[in-house]
Amino acid sequence: MNWRTPLAEPIALSAGDRQFVTLRDAAEFLTERYSKAQGGVLAGTIEDLIVASADPTPEHVRRATDQFARFLADENLVVGRPGSTGGDLEQRTRDMLAGRRSKAGQAKVACGVKRRRKQPRSR
């Protein structure tokens, strides 16, 4: 396992007293502070960190980073992060409602993937 793998992006506590840069930083914080806590989000966060340390692909590291950030936000330890998945989802939703294509949609168009068009209804 490679616990020295950097998170997808650094995460700082809102108090400014601690910053998390690697999977080890996140795991040590959770085990120090929440050693007796159990359940849901905490268990999922720890599992994602373990998976990312065992197989540090960008997808696993991103998932672990986002899950850790969500956990910290749920504990009111960080303020919303602009690069987090939640923010991306909100932005994608606003873009969709405004009729704009996402970066993924733009990439598909650039690669020649055709977008299905709605057929007009015939009466």
UniProtKB/TrEMBL annotation:
Start-end of Basic residues biased regions: 113-123
Domain of life where this protein originates: Bacteria
Sequence segments annotated as region (Disordered): 97-123
Protein name: DUF982 domain-containing protein
Organism for this UniProt entry: Phreatobacter cathodiphilus
